[in-house]
């Protein structure tokens, strides 16, 4: 499945106005389904929540601009080496991200939208993981 930028942007536009509730749902989902990652995150997540969803927003903005996207993701992946993130954590984060988008997107969440987001996350996780592994072995 290729990425459909129109579906990505239109579904994100439905999710985004839910504001802080989106990040709250995401972390609750992640820590409930993947408790092993809880200790990597600060005890209080308020500031962190904003940064993660700001990053998702930036990825959506640049979804049609692979050059910018890859640069952002490499930098982000390199920084994640310092947070203790491992390549094996990415599927759990992806599952919680998609569950969160599905929850808030309502009728905008169709099988095509889900497949398009899964394809985006594949690119995101692949590029971040590559940079993360490079930084960890440096
Ligand atoms: C779509 C994939 C991901 C995105 C967009 C993302 C985004 C971000 C952003 C924007 C930050 C704020 C700091 C910075 O900009 O460097 C951050 C911090 C962090 N991320 Fe990620 N991240 C992703 C995947 C992961 C994964 C797979 C893990 C591993 C469990 C992880 C663990 C962390 C941790 C531990 C922090 C620091 C938290 C703290 O300050 O307490 N992230 N992430």
Could you explain how this protein is built, in words?
- This protein is mainly alpha-helical and 138 residues long.
- The chain has one domain (5-136): Globin-like (Orthogonal Bundle), CATH 1.10.490.
- It contains 6 helices and no strands.
- The chain has helices spanning 5-15, 20-33, 46-61, 66-81, 90-105, 111-136.
- Helix 2 (20-33) crosses helix 3 and helix 4 (66-81) packs across helix 6.
- The termini are far apart.
- The relative contact order is 0.19.
- The structure holds protoporphyrin IX containing FE.
- Protoporphyrin IX containing FE (HEM) binds at residues 37, 40-42, 48, 51-52, 55-56, 76, 79-80, 83, 85, 89-90, 93, 124, 128.
- The site of protoporphyrin IX containing FE has 19 residues, from helix 3, helix 4, helix 5 and helix 6.
| CATH-defined superfamily | Globins
CATH topology type: Globin-like
Helix content: over 70%
Q: What is the terminal-to-terminal distance?
A: 34 Å
Number of strands: 0
Instruction: Determine the mean pLDDT.
Output: 93
CATH architecture: Orthogonal Bundle
Tally of alpha and pi helices: 6
What amount of the residues lies in strands? Answer: under 5%
Instruction: Specify the structural class.
Output: mainly alpha
Q: List unreliable stretches of 5+ residues.
A: none
Biggest beta sheet attributes: none
What is the ordering of alpha helices and beta strands? HHHHHH
